[in-house]
Amino acid sequence: MGITLYKKPELENPVLIAGWPGIGNIGIIAVETLRGMVRAEEFGEIEPWDFFYPKKVSIRNGELKDLEFPSNKFYFVKTEKRDLIFFIGEEQPTEGGKVYAEGTKAYQMANLVLDLALKFGCRRVYTSGAAVAPIHHSARPKVWAVPNSEDLIDEIKSYENTVLMSDIEGRGGQGAITGLNGLLLGVAKKRGLEAICVMGEIPVYLQGFPLPYPKASKSVLEVLTVTLGVKIDMEGIAALIERSESEIGRLYERFPPEIREELDKLIYVTYAESTEPGPITDEDKKRILEDIDKFFKKESKED
Amino acid sequence: MSEKQPFRIYGKPELQSSSLVVGWSEDAGKLGPKVIDYLNKKLGGKEFAEIVPADFFSLGGVSVEGDVAQFPESKFYWCQQKNLVVLQSYSPRSDWYRFLGAVLDVAELYCHVKELYTIGGMVSLSAHTAPRELLAVANSPEMKKVLSQYDIARDFDYETPPGQRPTLSSFLLWVAKRRNMAGASLWVPVPFYLVSTEDPQAWRVTVEFLDKRFGLGIDFRDLDEEVARQNEKIAQVRISFPEIDDYIRKLESNLGVTQEENEKLVKEIEEFLRRRD
After folding, report:
1. What does the pLDDT look like over B156-171, one tens digit per residue?
2. b/e sequence A242-259, b meaning 16+ C-beta within 10 Å
């Protein structure tokens, strides 16, 4: 079980940005887009066979030639402001058919990622994922940020379009981040590294569909690029968003009219704590969210 | 994390340059378990080792199949006279690479295995009356040369289609290749309406190859009787249900059947074959 390095770049105080697939692929789209735009170069990988079942076999002329596994690759780039390391995992290691990584394998993988980060002198880690929120898909997704140290809270407060858990009404600063995007934060804390997970919001009613949600990835990218001091062209992700919007629009049209009517009210829901009164009452908001919850529970039972 | 051996050895096989035959418990046409049981019975296989299930299977209860509670077992047997090791195992649910490494550890360290064969059934759209052709995938040019001495289909190309995953046999073959152990996976097409029940013809074709390869001296009369018995049962279904006869005729004429016909065929044949005599 280990890491294979193809080269050993000289890096100065690099920042690690890690991404895995998850709800709406929000995190991985953001990290992968950033990696592509800054032209980070592949320099290593985690040996996958200890963590994953293979994804493809190639047989030529009756002979087994290759077995392909989900990739787990490291990339680096030296930008004007700082050196960056990217880690992009094609799958999360799971045990016993679970959807998100947990248990020994996930812990081992988190440690391997951080082994490499520490080897190159990294002290700061970003992970990225999805935050399921009672928002409408026409809204600009906010970014929920969770640090692994209180010392980072003031920094996060300076990020644009970003909220802390304590800003989310009814959460009291609490919550959970499933899978490796969350676990890496904890393991980084244990190993003395600063880490922040930035999660783009996805509407609650889209979380169960196998659709990417690049609109939230863009919100994450806006935060990451400013924080890392990197300028990128957003045209590529804008095109992705355009395609996703029309797909979501078509899906939305298939919802029963009474549900669409309820969901449309989410346009007016402000769930982040605010001092100003919203366009609908707290009672309305509670009822809308309960109705939506009931509808999707009923739908999933019918599937 | 505990890194102790994930297997238990409770016998002392006396084998040199032996061969390992692996059958998976959940297999199309019950090919894996039936062939392994048959070899053990015919060759007097003695159980000597097992892979400990706790690390590889979800043990939160048991599954029930055919009215009986199942438990994931991975047991090794050795057959001294024919210098053969056989493994019958459930497919692990996690930590596959470590599991397959443990299989090869037992084979190499305790039985000096030099050659590996996996057996398996694959779903076919042919009728049960079509002959079963044995296919083989080698993990090295040398192994391919060995297979060329036998009447096996071995020159095909294949890539896992999108949305599917490779078989555990392919994974094992790859792990063996990394260890420089010669290996081949043997495949028999099983008619789709026999996948969940039994396909004695597929068992026979597989045993026939192993018999030739290892000089086992198998008397095939009992297997031939099984094949004849099942053919007779399916012939009865065809007489009792003209509709089913019609579907099978279509398959025999390479015409194919609709999804609805496919489902009816599977249902009727399975129900009939599962009826206890």
Report:
1. 899 999 999 999 999 9
2. eebeeebeeebeeeeeeb
Q: Tell me the per-residue pLDDT of A102-134, one tens digit each, with 9 for 90 and over.
A: 678 889 999 999 999 999 999 999 999 999 888
**Is B173 within 8 Å of chain A by CB?**
yes
- Please give the full DSSP string across B165-180, using - where no structure is assigned: ---HHHHHHHHHHHTT
Q: ipTM of this predicted complex?
A: 0.90
Kindly state the tokens that stand for A71: 């990739």
CA distances from A216 to A76, A143, A290 (A): 24, 8, 24
Contact (Cβ atoms closer than 8 angstroms) between residue B118 and residue B173? yes
Judged by a CB distance cut-off of 8 A, whether residue B96 touches chain A is yes
**Over 80: is that where the pLDDT of B67 sits?**
no
CB contact under 8 A, A67 and B97: no
Q: Which residue type occupies B76?
A: F
The domain locations on chain B are: 14-219, 224-274
**Tokens standing for residue B93:** 């649910």
Our CA-based measurement puts residue B222 at a distance from the nearest CA of chain A, in whole angstroms, of: 32
Q: Are strands A83-89 and A72-78 parallel, antiparallel or unpaired?
A: antiparallel
pLDDT at A279 over 60: no
Return d(Cα A46, Cα B97) in angstroms, integer: 15
Residue A59 with chain B: CB contacts under 8 Å: 137, 156-159
List alpha helices for B79-220, DSSP H: 96-111, 141-147, 168-178, 200-214
Interchain proximity A54–B171, CB inside 8 Å? yes
Q: How far apart are CA B230 and CA B275, in angstroms?
A: 12
Task: Tell me chain B's radius of gyration from C-alpha atoms.
Answer: 19
Q: How many Å lie between the alpha carbon of A47 and the closest alpha carbon of chain B?
A: 11
* Nearest Cα residue in chain A from B99: A50
Chain-chain contact of A64 with B137 (C-beta, under 8 angstroms): yes
Does domain B14-219 match CATH 3.40.50.10900? yes
Q: pLDDT of A176-186, one tens digit each?
A: 788 888 899 99
Q: Please report the pLDDT score of residue A177 as a whole number.
A: 80
Q: Which phi-psi region, left, alpha or beta, contains residue A260 (left: φ > 0; alpha: ψ -120 to 50)?
A: alpha
Chain A nearest-CA distance from B136, in A, is 7
